[in-house]
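Hi C.,

You asked whether I'd gotten around to modeling the 687-residue construct. I have! Everything is below, sequence then structure, no commentary in between.
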Amino acid sequence: MLRHLNVIGVVCLLFMGMIIILSCNDDTTNTSSIYLISGKHADDVELSTIEDLKNDLGKVVHADIRVVSEGETVPPNASVFILGTPDSNTLIGTMVNVGKLDLTKDNPGPRGGIWGKIDLENNVQAIVIGGSDTQGLQYAIYDYAKEILGVDALEYWTGKMPQPKTSQALFNFEPKMIAPPQIPILGYFENDVDELANYRGKLLEYDWESYTEMINSLVRLRYNAIQLFDMLGRPEFFIRPEYKKLSPDYAIRETYIDSLIDYAQSKGMMVQIDVSMGYKIKPLDQNKADCWKNHKQDWIDTWTYYFEETPFKKADIISLRPRNQVWDWEYKSTCGEDKIEVFNEVYQVLGDLIDHYNPNAKKVMVCYADGMEMFNQNLNPPKDWLVAWSDDGFSGFKHLPKSTKGYGFGTYMHAGFWLNHTVHDPYPKKMDTIMKNMVKNYQADKYCLVNGQQFRPFLLNIEAFSEISKDVKTFDGEQFYKDWTQRYFAPTVAEAAVKSMKKLHEAQLDRGGYVEHLWEIRETVSYLSNSPIRRPGKTPVPYDYTAVEEDYEHVENRLKLAKEALELAVEGEKSVQKEDTFYYDYIVLPIHLYHDLLNFEHTLHQMAQLKKTFEKTNDFKALDKALETLVLANDQLETIHRRSLEGDRNQKWKNWYNPEIRRPNNGFPSKLMLSDIKTNLALLKKQ
């Protein structure tokens, strides 16, 4: 922490050798200037972060803001920021050496930092923001931007802008130590991002702005790693018929991937690559992905190609799941292998390759349910592999370790899941309980990978994980809810937002979600139209009333809760100013979308019950009633499509929910489906 420094002490001790040259000119035109003093040994990440601070200051104060290196001239009466680490900034290093600043590599420690203030000669004021290392400086600067300047880490996505401030307000803080986060590696999994990739028009490829702004926000939230996945060319994109129809000429650009990696690393983020082998960049033949002993050399050759010929060579973290190496499903050997024996050998062989090509890379084994079962038996990779234990998609754990076996342990968590990737399931209170249990019982605080789906709908959960990573024990899910909503909304509106989001979470009971209901709708349509569900490349699913009947109760329960959530959200909107679109876009619209879909499914269920009555009794009145109800279903479907196409009120996100470019998981209801139902019901009447 910064100790008191008097003027004489500063002049004698700090400016010896002209570290900062103070101009002697009494130039009053410079009274509104701000100088950011970087260290002469600052690395590119430090300089990038300091440039971010310059931009942040420019949003809140009217001043001439300049970034200069130590040793350059600073005018009198300027506001000065001294920025860096003891190693990168000589001025900070000198303060540490003379005992005027408590900041070392070990205090507060890796990824930790400090804020302080000093008075210099000629009425020059200085703010010191330092870090034990580069990431510590980053977090100290970004925390200052958030807490003192009012800059929202998610500004690009929320539209929240900071309020103007006076130059004096920049100094309105007490000296502070920023402790290192408890979880040293907090990664973001770039997965299931179709909408984020597609909404601007170019399908299945990030535009540069969306990707870099996501990185910028994640870094401010203390995520220090990102796993690239979808944009490496996941196999669905060029194999599955739904995607071939969406983008028949799908291709990837390795130079673009290379640039994405460079950008993430330039912002201080580690890049993680899972070296499964289904990527377009060099896909392994599917028939070779489930027999290690016969195709071992093909696996090794593919990994070698990755490390020698592709941007994967730049990865800071290498991960692998003990699963099928093309498709994300359980490894089922086609040649009689014991899969545990297979992956004990796989992790040894791959580990040796990593040590050869990228000896500084961290290694992570990510265990899904089947991998957990294997680990609880005899799956034992070399001890330099960290083990990441996966949740159930909704921040709960169905499987727990019998023992950590002495491995470094972490978690793979979901801020959003593929079953609900359109509408978020807000659950910071659930995270609170679950993460505390995992850390207390299994010391799972060495690593956390967060799946945020397509990022924008899951901002609240994504930020909650960043707060948990700072100190798992002190995180309070209820307080986080309040703090997060009050950052964006007036207190009464924030209260309504919390109530509605809690109710939305309830409405997704039993791990429900928007995309899950799309499948249930297909099952109901299949029964009503007497036609199997046809899936490209897969066996058709026969129509089955029993499957539909199983959904009645939970749909009714979810619909009731979704209606309550919507009423709470709409009530809160009455106090929101028209120009504030974020409340509608983030709080109201998702609940509308979920409620619309549930309402439609509920109507189809009523029709299914009527059809079943006809099948049991041959009562044609039941079919007549079903056809009458079909009119309501048509109206509800029109509402679903209209609201999806209208989307957000902020036109920045126009086209986001467009059914034509959405992720094709479980399809999307269409007029043709209802037409097929009408045709079938009419035929039944004629029999």
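If it helps when you're writing up: Residues 137 and 544 are 60 Å apart (CA to CA).

Thanks,
B.
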